[in-house]
Amino acid sequence: MRIAFIADVHGNYPALVSVVEDAISNNVDKMVFVGDYIFDLPFSNEVVRYLMKLENAHIIKGNKETSLDRLANDNQDNWTSNQMGGIYQTYRELSKDTYDFLKNLDDECSIDINSNISIYAVHVPQFFKSSLKTNCSSSNFHKKMIAEHFSHEQFLSEFNELVN
What we know:
5 strands; 164 residues; alpha/beta; two-stranded antiparallel ribbon; 8 helices; single chain
């Protein structure tokens, strides 16, 4: 069985279409989409509508889709166009059908290969999900790099502390 795992589309509709077409041309039996379909590039609605039409695909949430709950309950009066501007703009532009689809996705899935084998798929493993939300973010590392040079070794060291 041939399975394509696809993740981190981040609103890049042309890339998504290319990757799916490539998977189909390579005769994959199943496609598993492992989250982060929205934000960063301006085609989030198009990406989600494309996913909604796919047959024989497993689609689960990533951390970007999980953040919709927080954004829904956030005071938009405090939203600025600084670092989070792209996220805020995308959230405001999500249509009801794409928003509802994303909110109702599962956090994980299991794909049966045969009677003896199944594959478990998740975007962020549960064992360090809470640490990642609070401590391991690109914005935290960006702030550190502005204050002083932040090496790759420091990044790995801090990340390993979060998961151990």
